[in-house]
Design a protein that fits this description.
binds fe (iii) ion; binds zinc ion; 23% strand; six-stranded mixed beta sheet; alpha/beta; Metallo-beta-lactamase, Chain A; 14 strands; 34% helix
């Protein structure tokens, strides 16, 4: 089994669609469907046809292109069972128990509720890739629209528990905004400061800050660091349990 070609496609204002192509079989998949037009153009440019769509959650900026892509390519559309009613074009529903693969590459489904109640994350263990949708961003976490902080903390913890060199692809380019907040929480974190400088340079050059890695996020993302004494001290929660610190960080970020 060879390496997959990966195309990180900016869509709409700040969304990402990731296109995966297996050169051996010619099979192509996409994670989320922000824009049928933009995805069709990117595929046409490369002479690829879409076989599979993997959807993380029901929000329109991740599902808006499904109907047209499904009609145009006859692609299989896979998404969370818990959101099947809200994503009408699914052809296959999945839970954490599902056995899933793309072009012979196994996929583990992680249930990562919080942003939405059915949100799933797709982990490709053999490829060291994880697609986190709107659950975990670089230097940030998703907003908690449908769940609660405990639930969201558990979800981001599942991603943090993956091997450190796993490449994380998230649903939005929010890194620079997240970086500004992260610096207010942990101004003395040297790894964070270095990452922020990189992020600023990448964005100034119009380049994506994605993928990031599990290890880099664990070292820099305040939402994965509620155990840090310096973070706890800064927000006046020394010794508080992780889900509570996480929840407070989320509140502060919402107000930032
Ligand atoms: Zn969303
Ligand atoms: Fe989104």
């Amino acid at each position: 089994m060879g390496a997959l070609d990966i195309v990180l496609l900016p869509c709409l204002a700040d969304n990402y669609c990731v296109i995966l192509h297996d050169p051996e079989s010619g099979e192509t998949a996409a994670i989320d469907a922000p824009s049928a037009e933009q995805i069709k153009a990117a595929l046409a440019e490369r002479g690829w046809r879409l076989n599979h769509l993997f959807i993380t959650h029901h929000h329109t900026d991740h599902t808006g292109g499904i109907a047209e892509l499904k009609a145009f390519y006859g692609a299989t559309v896979t998404g969370p069972e818990a959101e099947a009613e809200r994503i009408p074009d699914l052809t296959r529903v999945v839970t954490a128990k599902s056995e899933l693969a793309f072009a012979g590459h196994p996929i583990q489904v992680l249930e990562t509720p919080g942003h939405t109640l059915g949100h799933v994350t797709y982990y490709f263990p053999n490829d060291g890739l994880v697609f986190t949708g709107d659950t975990l961003f670089s230097l940030g976490s998703g907003r908690i629209f449908e769940g609660n902080p405990e639930m969201m903390w558990e979800s981001v913890s599942k991603i943090a528990a993956l091997p450190g060199d796993t490449n994380i692809y998230c649903g939005h380019e929010y890194t620079l905004t997240n970086a500004r907040f992260a610096l207010t929480i942990e101004p003395e974190n040297e790894v964070l400061k270095k990452r922020v400088a990189e992020v600023e340079a990448l964005r100034a050059a119009g380049k994506p800050t994605i993928p990031t890695t599990v290890d880099l996020e664990k070292a820099t993302n305040p939402f994965l660091r509620p155990r840090s004494r310096s973070i706890q001290a800064r927000i006046g929660m020394l010794g508080a349990p992780e889900p509570e610190v996480f929840g407070r960080l989320r509140q502060l970020k919402n107000k930032a």
